[in-house]
Amino acid sequence: MRAAVQPEALPSPRAHVEASIHASAPAGARRSPTALAGEIPAIVMLALAGCHRGHDQSALHPASAEAASIATLWWVMFGVLAVAFVIVIALALFAISRRAQSRTAPGGSARFVVVSGIVVPSIILVGLLVYSLHTSQQLRRPAEGRVIQVTGFQWWWEVRYPDLGIITANEIHLPAGEPVRLELRAKDVVHSFWVPNLHGKIDLLPETVNTIRIRADEPGTWRGICAEFCGRQHALMGLRVVALTPPDFDRWAEERRPPARPTPTTEIRRGEEVFFESSCHVCHAVRGTRAVGRIGPDLTHLASRLTLGAGAVENNRERLAAWVLDPHAIKPGNLMPRTPLSPDDLEALLDYLQTLR
Ligand code: CUA
Q1: Given the CA of residue 235, which atom of ligand 1 is nearest to it?
Q2: pTM, 2 dp
């Protein structure tokens, strides 16, 4: 049963708007002002298309002190520059109207030009520069707290908790209200870690470990992305950050500490055999078994993850089947090969994989 599953169709307001514009304007036809006015909602929708993501991936909805200082910097810059913009436009309109009335070239005072054209903009720009340097200095404070190691691969994230012995992928669980020290590095090419609700961007480099401190104010789930072009599937290199209350975090860690569960039923045991017969263990690890591959994500807790393929699709049985059979239909160019399986073997393998919580 090879399900021809495609990646989840993203809502595309843009496509809708383009369709509506084309539908209302036959080629070469001149459009009346009324028709143009009718398209204003569509144009507004197009402008707002970037906002449909919601608040879980937004630098303007900070959920940590670090993100809050970045958001404040953004709002200060926006406010100052908006006022400057309004003043400049007002002066320009004033000058145009004066010129239209007098019909002679306006004679300006040199002092006014120097003050408003050089002195004032310089003060504003230097002030904003100093403020932004101060903010980035604050963000570079020594990172303390529980260590979580994040490694960027083409195109997924490995997440390790050295003190807990937990290895997982594409999801970072952390206790809300407690500082966490993220140690970031790359396995292959340069990536960039960006969870806008929690912190600014930080590069992951193959040779160096970069660290940042994050402390989520409250429990919540946020989306992150790779913010540095890193190859064909850069756009599908997403992650989730889940902040839990400290007791929930301890429970989460406790549940993930033991190795993979034993395989009780015949189907599940058959699924485990299929896993090894299909050479899944060459690339993937399942703690507690002889699967110790390090090329792909650790699968010890696969079934408890929210997504497959680093945020490419939701993690459910149907998507997992599609991913195993043909991961390139979902995420072209990724390193995992296609795995042709008979329907019975596939079902057994899915049964096994779904025990890996
Ligand atoms: Cu990793 Cu872009």
Answers
A1: 2
A2: 0.76
